[in-house]
Amino acid sequence: RLPALEVLPGETGVAIDLFAQRLSVVRRLTKMNDGSPVIVCPIQALMQGVPRPDSIGRLVRALRVGDRADPSAIAAWLTDAGYTRLDAVEEPGDFALRGGILDVFPSGGSVTAGGVSQPVQTPVRLDFFGDEVESIREVDIETMGSDRALDSVEIVTNTPDSARPGDDSVSLLDLVPPASLALIAETREVTEQGRGYYERATDTRGIFGPPAVFKKLTEKCAGFAEVNQFSAGASTSDVRIDLPVEPIPSFDRDTAAAIAELAELPGRVVVPFLNEGERSRFGELLTEGTGTAGSDDEPRARARGADVDGAPRACARGSQGDAGEVESVLAYIHRGFAWTGETPITLVPYHELLHRFEVRRGMGRLKTGRAMDTFLDVQPGDYVVHAEHGVAHFVGLTLMKVNGKKERDRRDACPTGK
């Protein structure tokens, strides 16, 4: 998915998380030797230029378990990239270095675990053994304890100026493989959206107008097609193809009833989840449904099998003869659909099943009340474990200055040996 930056060119306030997703697409395209990627995006995303591949090295820092890297050098890169060094990370854009432990809350980027990559949503802790990355784990922002183990992390710069398209930007279409196919859904609507966006722009540096985008689509791609719900006058193509695609039904707002309706869908049913937490919760809902199921004639869903190394999980469905299995995958799909052809398949995103639609959130300060309460419970004279000196006596709070700026509340401790 290639998102569009949700600001007009020349304005401030670029969302770094969206910029990170765009960088991820560019990195995958430049590293790809074979395969057939699918890029889904609005017209605005193609109009906005992306950084040149040779400039990505200064915008992203990628670290994997087993990599050799100097923690101090990474801290220096984070500082240059707009991150703030503190004693404890609290919000996106913070990092803390204590000996061989580096905590960082990326403003944007991605984490990979078990071969599955997803946008970063929590702080990340890198544990070094000398200059080797020994482990990478997610951090619970409330307790600051280590959580899920990760294979790698990509940290994106926290400087908004780097995120805005500029004179040195290139079109993403210059990076796609030459054998790519272009598919435009609702040509007239896409054209109007692109024209409106371009006309409102006050600074068009790094922005490609709709005519330039359509020209590149025809020049850079091996094939070009249009899909229109109402084709009269909307399509420029001489070939008409009717696809057996329908919208999925609206599910009941009661969770148990919605799952029962899911079990009644014919053919193959796939439920995409954004993360393991959603998939785990879905399994719990299926188990609860099993315990309350009535007679064998009632359609129902039940959990089947255990987790095996992150493999897709499934649940068997009720007694209807045409019902197969509900499969689960980690993927993002904004809207579900049903393919009603000879082999029917229905994709039902978890958020659409339970009527939970994403609302873009700002990168504001996170609430960390419980974590701070834990620190405030420490009283002068208490024994604590110092990050570098071991067991110590807690002395008190001091407002420190670092590089001429006041740092957030800092806890001082005195080693018991002194």
Stretches where pLDDT falls below 50 for ≥5 residues? Answer: 292-314, 316-324, 360-374, 406-413
How many DSSP helices?
A: 10
Strand content: 25-35%
Q: Which structural class matches the secondary elements?
A: alpha+beta
Strand order of the largest sheet: 13-18-19-14-17-16-15
Oligomer: single chain
State the major sheet: 7 strands, mixed
Mean pLDDT across all amino acids: 77
CATH architecture of one domain: 3-Layer(aba) Sandwich
Q: What is the percent of helical residues?
A: 10-25%
**Beginning-to-end CA distance, first to last residue:** 57 Å
What's the total count of β strands?
24
Shape: globular
Structure description:
With 418 residues, the protein is an alpha+beta fold. The protein has helices spanning 16-31, 43-47, 71-80, 160-163, 187-200, 210-220, 255-263, 276-291, 350-353, 369-376, and strands spanning 60-64, 84-85, 94-98, 101-104, 109-113, 116-119, 124-129, 132-139, 146-150, 152-156, 181-185, 223-227, 245-246, 267-273, 301-304, 314-317, 323-330, 337-339, 345-347, 383-386, 390-398, 401-402, 405-406, 410-415. Among the domains are: 246-353, Rossmann fold (3-Layer(aba) Sandwich), CATH 3.40.50; 378-415, no CATH class. The strands form 6 sheets. Strands 13-18-19-14-17-16-15 form a 7-stranded mixed beta sheet. The chain has a 6-stranded mixed beta sheet with strand order 2-3-4-7-8-9, covered by helices on one side. A 4-stranded antiparallel beta sheet has the order 1-10-5-6. Strand 3 (94-98) and strand 4 (101-104) form a beta hairpin. The longest helix has 16 residues, at 16-31. The radius of gyration is 25 Å and the shape is globular.
